[in-house]
């Protein structure tokens, strides 16, 4: 099956629902993570301290989504119906059958829960099984050990490091650690993710 361009879609799991990100999610998102420096530490800038500051970032993301740069999702906690973070498909290359899952954050209350595991399961299943992608990559700052551990737990393989890859907001230089899952690795990764969700429930 030829790879297809990802489009806005709703993906539903047991604990989270991923739906097209919109400005209507702003209030929930600010309540989940506004002003929390640790949540925003690796997001390329200081934590938004007001609804307006977070709204500006959200508007920028939505504008780039209109240009096809991102396909962003609001992460909805199904038990409450509230948006608790966002995530996106990005670096989309249909000809090369590849995309990246990135610009992901969740409110601190949902760290180390099933939220990240199920979100990634939904996104990866859609990418490989519906869109026909052959490679899905994820990347993070070499100092962000929590993120690296979370990526490894979903079954992605560490590929390597791009040194002095990007300047951080404070002027220092970031090395970027790349991970990926390939289409032939996906069945085993999917089985592992499903087992983690079924067996651990409260860990993501």
UniProtKB/TrEMBL annotation:
Residues 16-157 form the N-acetyltransferase domain. The keyword Transferase applies. Keywords: Transferase. It comes from the Bacteria. The keyword Ligase does not apply. GO terms for molecular function: acyltransferase activity, transferring groups other than amino-acyl groups. This is RimJ/RimL family protein N-acetyltransferase. It comes from Streptomyces nymphaeiformis. The lineage of its organism: Bacteria, Bacillati, Actinomycetota, Actinomycetes, Kitasatosporales.
